[in-house]
Amino acid sequence: MNKAQTDSATEASAAPREERAADLCVVAELVEIQMSIARATQQEALQAPQPGVDYCQRIATVSRAVRLTLLLKDKLSRQVEERRKAAAQREAAQEDWHALRVRLAMMAAAYEMSEDGEEADRRAAEVSERLERPEVAELVEASRVEVAVAALCRRWGYPVQVKQWLEMADEAMEELGFLPPQDGEDDEDPPEPRSAAPGRRKPKPPDTG
C-alpha cells in the first residue's frame, strides 16, 4: 500500500472511527453506572432493607439494563471491526488496481472536458493510446496514484483536479465491482485483475472488459 492511498483512506475513515470509539466509551460508562446501582441495591438489601421495597424486582430491572447495554456494546464493537476490515479491503483493492485507477481518472478528466460525444470519444482514444506508451506506463507504475494523475493532467492539458478525477474513478470501480463500497456493506469479492479498455459513452463508466 502506498503512503498516499493509506493517508487518504485513513482520513476518510478517521471521523467514523472516532465516533464509534466515543460511543463505546459512553456505553462502557453506562455499564459501570448500572453495576454501581446494582451493587448499591444489593448492599442496601443486605444491610439496611427498606420496608415495601422489592429488591428482587429492582435487581432484575438493573440486570436487564446491563444486558441490553452489553449487547449494544457488542454490536458497536462488531461494527467498528467490520468497518476496519472493509477499509482494509478497499485499500488493498485500490493498490491492486493502481493502474486502472489512473486510467479511469484520466478518462473521467477527458469526458468532463469534452463538449459532446464525438469529442469525448476522441479524447478517450487519445488517453488510451497515450497510457500504453512505455514512458507513461513506467510513470504510472513508479508513482503514487495522485502523483501520476497530477503529472498526466499537466502533461496532457487537463485541469489538475486530482481529487475529483479519483473520486469519479473510484465510483466507476465500485459500479464495476473492482472496489468494495465505501461503507463496507458489500461482502462480495472483487473480480480478478484483467486489462482495461476505455469506455465509449459519457453517461456510463468506462468498459473494462
Structural summary, described in words:
This protein is mainly α and 209 residues long. It is rod-shaped and about 90 Å long. It is 73% helix and 0% strand. The longest helix has 45 residues, at 3-47.
Structure summarized in a few sentences:
With 209 residues, this protein is mostly helical.
What descriptors fit this protein?
209 residues, 73% helix, single chain
> In percent, how much strand structure appears in the residues?
under 5%
> What can be said about the biggest beta sheet?
none
Percent range for helical residues?
Answer: over 70%
Principal-axis shape equals rod-shaped
Radius of gyration: 27 Å
The helix count comes to: 7
Q: Calculate the mean pLDDT score and round it.
A: 77
- The topology string of helices and strands comes to HHHHHHH
Number of strands: 0
Which secondary structure elements does this structure contain, and how are they paired or packed?
Blueprint: H1 3-47, H2 55-96, H3 98-112, H4 117-131, H5 134-142, H6 145-156, H7 162-176
